[in-house]
Amino acid sequence: MTTAILADPVSKLHDPGQGHPEQPARFDAAIRGLPPDALTSFARREAVRAELALCHTADYIRLVDREVSAGYLQLSTGDTQVGPDSLEVARSAVGTVLTAVDLVCSAEASNAFCVVRPPGHHATANRGMGFCIFNNIAIAARYAQARQGIQRVLIADWDVHHGNGTQDIFYEDGSVFFFSTHQSPWYPGTGHPFETGAGPGLGTTLNCPFRAGSGRKEILGAFEQKLVPAMEEFRPELVLISAGFDSRINDPLGNFLLSDQDFTDLTRLLVLIATKYASGRLVSVLEGGYNLSGLEQAVRAHVNGLESTLETCRPMTHAI
Ligand SMILES: [Zn+2]
Q1: What's the 182 CA to ligand 1 centre distance in angstroms?
Q2: What sign does the dihedral 25-23-239-109 (CA atoms) show?
Q3: Is 90 exceeded by the pLDDT of residue 284?
Q4: Which of these, 249, 250, 164, 256, lies nearest to 210 by C-alpha position?
Q5: How far is CA 286 from the centre of its chain?
Q6: For 121-160, how does the pLDDT look when each residue is reduced to its tens digit (9 = 90+)?
Q7: Residues 258 and 214 sit within 8 Å (Cβ to Cβ)
Q8: What is the Cα Rg of the chain in Å?
Q9: Ligand 1 centre and the CA of 21: distance in Å?
């Protein structure tokens, strides 16, 4: 297995302001968690408008353009602070994730992890919120379908916050399965078990909310007992991870208790799902994670899981 690690230092130019938890130092913390010489060399690119439009409305793309150019400190759509470089950085984050999709779908890498800022999973088609400008992972799913001939995509989201934007974008789309474990009640207030999709998407949204203080038993349990059986029917051709590490113990923005070993085990379970149904194709995208030393350690554990061989995965997830 070869794991591609994509990280674009331009992401440090997105500055939500002093004291903000989604800070440029998160990038350095994540990089410290990588094995030596882990970074994959790749041509950096910014997503073009047509790629952003795979998930976002033309009006919203114009709004971001206009407000960042005008020097707004926060998008008018919600709680997302921006600076003068935020548009370039947000487009680069999407571009990096799309490059990872190309690498994995062309079998140049077995799987990939993208260290990107800002996060994306709260951004809806027409609204930036929750520190997110563009929905990196949602655009990756649509791009894989449009450009790489992938039909069915799983997005698994273990961030402590519900990925309301991702859910919203695919709520009526049965070709993208959205699975989320998250703290509830908590920001942004969505992600109830009765939110299961609509129309052609009915049954391809699966929410597993848990109280503050939940950890391995609840979250790994949900992945094993809810997600694994659901994938037997859905059979994804690409697995995407919204890898938020604010579900780790001691995060300032969450109250879950996941350990670094838990992140390795969650990762291995998803590697197994990808191996079984998707020829191993898996792209993981950084979302939250606001304790800097915790982020470093969780990234180390996550990449360790991505680099697992099938043999080391197998004993752990006998369920599939
Ligand atoms: Zn989060």
Answers
A1: 9
A2: negative
A3: yes
A4: 256
A5: 5
A6: 999 999 999 999 999 999 999 999 999 999 999 999 999 9
A7: no
A8: 18
A9: 11
Which residue is associated with the tokens 């791009």?
143
- Domain map of the chain by residue range? 3-312
What is the three-class DSSP state of 318?
A: coil
**Helices 260-277/292-306 angle, 10° precision:** 30
Catalytic residue among 56, 121, 122, 182: 122
d(CA 251, ligand 1 centre) in Å: 10
In the annotation, is 122 catalytic? Answer: yes
H helical segments located in the chain? 25-32, 49-52, 58-69, 86-105, 136-147, 164-170, 216-222, 228-234, 260-277, 292-306, 310-313
Closest among 5, 60, 76 to 303, alpha carbons compared: 5
Distance 107 CA to ligand 1 centre (A): 30
CA torsion, ordered 32, 299, 11, 6, to nearest 10 deg: 100
Q: Mean pLDDT over all residues of the chain?
A: 95
Q: What is the pLDDT of residues 210-260, one digit of tens each?
A: 999 999 999 999 999 999 999 999 999 999 999 999 999 999 999 999 999
With contact defined as beta carbons under 8 Å apart, do 222 and 204 qualify?
A: no
3-312 has CATH 3.30.450.20 classification: no
